[in-house]
Amino acid sequence: MSYIESSEEQVKELSPRFRLLYFVVVISAVVFVMRLWYLQIFMGTELRISSDQNRIKRQKLVAPRGMILDREGRVLVDNLPGFDVQITPQYARELEKTADEVGRILSIDPKQIVKDVRVGRRKDGAFKPVVIKRNLNRDEVARIERIRHAHPGLTVVTPMKRTYMLNEDGAQLFGYVGEIQ
Questions:
Q1: What residue segments make up the domains of the chain, in order of their start?
Q2: How many CB atoms lie within 10 A of CB 157?
Q3: What is the pTM of this model?
Q4: What does the DSSP assignment read for 68-126?
Q5: Distance (Å, rounded) from C-alpha 151 to C-alpha 88?
Q6: Which of 3.40.50.720, 3.50.50.60, 3.90.1310.10, 3.30.70.20 would CATH assign to domain 83-158?
Q7: Is the dihedral of CA 151, 153, 159, 161 positive or negative?
Q8: Per-residue pLDDT reduced to its tens digit, 26-44
């Protein structure tokens, strides 16, 4: 038996295996191309919209309100920065752990924080932040900022608070002091 005859026999032996391998590769390529077509062409518009909604975060920006002065230039109503801590339910992955840490810092019951966040999620949706405490002092802000990076969804915001130099009587004269809707 010559070398050529033995190699022809080996090719004949391996031929069914190559056909099977070729068939598997072709089927895999067809499935891959079909899946790409499905995602890009058929579902492309829907997936693009979904992607944009995940990428674009709508944020409510409140325009600053001006000072009110009397005719001699004395300030009657001013805006002072305040600090509020809030949790966005969608981003709070470990809500109980976050509530424990925030509750310890702010002297609030963690169970109440969890309850408030869950109620806020049902009422306003998962992406609307729930205010945990308003008017934090600078020490509380510093302590929250220290842990904020370990707790997604936890933020400190600085809304402007309306301050009336005539105290409560000024609010009656100069307008409503409730939260801006």
A1: 3-55, 83-158
A2: 12
A3: 0.59
A4: EE-TTS-EEEEEEE--EEEE-TTT-SSHHHHHHHHHHHHT--HHHHHHHHHHHHHHH-T
A5: 11
A6: 3.90.1310.10
A7: negative
A8: 999 999 999 999 999 988 8
